[in-house]
């Protein structure tokens, strides 16, 4: 069975956007790795207070995603994205004046809310502006973001050792620069005549309540993301304290994330082959991604006493991440068209619940019974995500084929969502 080659090119006008995205991700990574250290060492708070700051940061981020998605149609991409980025820069600069715990907690929550509000808007803009290239673009954005985070976290400690004030200032400068770039970018771009609008699912109206009633777009997808984000908390709240408890060097945990970042860069040919030859549809990519996560956590639950098993688990989990992270925005924008920002914000907010619950649940489990039950709970959560994603694939299957055929005229999907071959 032969398949046509995929068109992997991306529009030239996106090059500067992708570089700006990388720099913005690098700037954002200046803050979040240092929150606990700043609260404890500078504000002289305890680790419990630092935990509450992180909780508030995560909660504000979830609310920001939903609010940004809901406001997209009313404000439009230019005002929402540029305005949120400009306000984010001001919130980051305000951290230079946050010399007490309550003020810092409020400023960091505002920063998280504002930067999160831009994410569904940016993803919806990319998915609807360059429809024919959305899959490639979302994957490239994912890779560029991870490069920025890797560079940013590496520089964060160096800059913070000089001055935390300098860290906050540079973070604000990069965000403000991204806001100016996006403002000029929106003024410069022109409509793309090759991108005709496609509505895969009939929308029930423009009001938020009517969009919420269209639950098949987001319910199972958001449930799968919630379960996965809960499971992923096992790294910070299970694996990290376990390595510390068993006498490993501090860099043992950072090595795992070095493996993660390296694989995201060098493993793209493998995931591209999987997408082309194995999964073939976005929904199948989600099912396989959660299954890989489940295999990773199950393997670590059985063999976690050996450090190489944790490294192997990170390798498998990273391939699951690469199949999941860029696929969700691609799929949502495909399915929902002009309402993509609303549903992206809603799905992101639902998934964020797992990030809120995971550290609390796993922190108590670790104190009670160590790492083993944490890894088994994470495995079960990934299995639930697999079931949810499989249910989602079945729910949207009848409308995926005509939508995919409209977006990719050189490829054909049947009504059951499987790609068909062309005659030789």
Please give the structural blueprint.
Layout: H1 14-28, H2 35-42, H3 47-94, H4 101-129, H5 134-162, H6 164-188, H7 208-213, H8 219-245, H9 251-266, H10 268-279, H11 282-303, H12 307-324, H13 327-336, H14 340-369, H15 371-407, E1 412-413, E2 419-420
Antiparallel strand pairs: 1-2
Helix segment tally: 15
Which band does the percent of strand residues land in? under 5%
The order of strands across the largest sheet is 1-2
Alpha-carbon Rg, integer = 21 Å
CATH class of the largest domain: Mainly Alpha
CATH superfamily of the largest domain: MFS general substrate transporter like domains
This entry's quaternary arrangement is: single chain
The number of domains: 2
CATH architectural name of the largest domain: Up-down Bundle
Total strands: 2
Distance between the termini: 9 Å
Class by helix and strand content?
mainly alpha
Unreliable sequence segments? 1-7, 193-205, 405-424
Transmembrane segments: 21-40, 103-125, 137-162, 168-186, 217-235, 255-274, 286-303, 309-328, 340-362, 374-392
GO molecular function, one term: transmembrane transporter activity
Membrane topology: Multi-pass membrane protein
Domain Major facilitator superfamily (MFS) profile: 13-397
Model description:
InterPro entries: MFS (IPR011701), MFS_dom (IPR020846), MFS_trans_sf (IPR036259), MFS_Transporters (IPR050171), Tet-R_TetA/multi-R_MdtG-like (IPR001958). Keywords: Cell membrane, Membrane, Transmembrane, Transmembrane helix, Transport. It is found in: Cell membrane. It is a multi-pass membrane protein. One of its GO terms (molecular function) is transmembrane transporter activity. The structure is a single chain. The chain is mostly helical and 424 residues long. It folds into 2 domains: 175 residues, Growth Hormone, Chain: A, CATH 1.20.1250.20; 218 residues, Up-down Bundle (Growth Hormone, Chain: A). The protein contains 15 helices and 2 strands. Strands 1-2 form a two-stranded antiparallel sheet. Strand 1 and strand 2 form a beta hairpin. Helix 2 crosses helix 3, helix 3 packs across helix 6 and helix 4 runs antiparallel to helix 5. The longest helix has 48 residues. It is globular and about 60 Å long.
């Amino acid at each position: 069975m032969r398949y046509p080659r995929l068109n992997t090119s991306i529009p030239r006008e996106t090059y500067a956007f992708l570089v700006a995205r990388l720099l913005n991700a690098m700037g954002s990574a200046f803050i979040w790795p240092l929150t606990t250290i700043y609260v404890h060492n500078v504000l002289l708070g305890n680790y419990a207070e630092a935990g509450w700051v992180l909780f508030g940061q995560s909660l504000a981020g979830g609310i920001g995603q939903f609010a940004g998605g809901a406001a997209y149609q009313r404000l439009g991409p230019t005002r929402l994205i540029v305005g949120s980025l400009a306000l984010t820069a001001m919130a980051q600069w305000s951290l230079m004046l946050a010399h007490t715990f309550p003020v810092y907690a409020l400023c960091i929550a505002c920063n998280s809310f504002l930067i999160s509000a831009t994410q569904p808007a940016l993803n919806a803009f990319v998915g609807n502006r360059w429809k024919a290239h959305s899959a490639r673009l979302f994957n490239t954005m994912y890779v560029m973001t991870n490069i920025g985070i890797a560079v940013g976290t590496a520089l964060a400690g160096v800059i913070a050792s000089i001055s935390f004030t300098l860290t906050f200032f540079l973070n604000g400068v990069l965000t403000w620069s991204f806001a100016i770039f996006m403002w000029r970018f929106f003024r410069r771009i022109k409509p793309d005549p090759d991108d005709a609008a496609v509505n895969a699912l009939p929308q029930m109206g423009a009001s938020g309540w009517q969009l919420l009633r269209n639950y098949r777009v987001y319910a199972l997808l958001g449930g799968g993301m919630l379960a996965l984000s809960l499971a992923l908390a096992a790294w910070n709240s299970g694996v990290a304290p376990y390595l510390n408890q068993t006498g490993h060097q501090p860099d043992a945990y950072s090595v795992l994330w070095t493996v993660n970042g390296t694989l995201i860069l060098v493993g793209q040919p493998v995931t591209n082959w999987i997408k082309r030859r194995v999964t073939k549809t976005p929904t199948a990519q989600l099912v396989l991604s959660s299954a890989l996560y489940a295999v990773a956590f199950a393997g670590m639950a059985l063999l976690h006493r050996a450090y190489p098993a944790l490294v192997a688990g990170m390798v498998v989990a990273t391939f699951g991440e690469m199949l999941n992270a860029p696929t969700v925005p691609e799929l949502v924008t495909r399915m929902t068209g002009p309402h993509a920002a609303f549903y992206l914000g809603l799905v992101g907010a639902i998934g964020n619940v797992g990030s809120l619950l995971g550290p609390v649940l796993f922190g108590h489990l670790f104190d009670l019974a160590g790492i083993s039950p944490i890894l088994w709970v994470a495995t079960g959560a990934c299995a639930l995500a697999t079931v949810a994603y499989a249910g989602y694939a079945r729910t949207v299957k009848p409308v995926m084929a005509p939508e995919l055929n409209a977006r990719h005229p050189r490829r054909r999907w049947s009504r059951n969502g499987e790609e068909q071959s062309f005659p030789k």
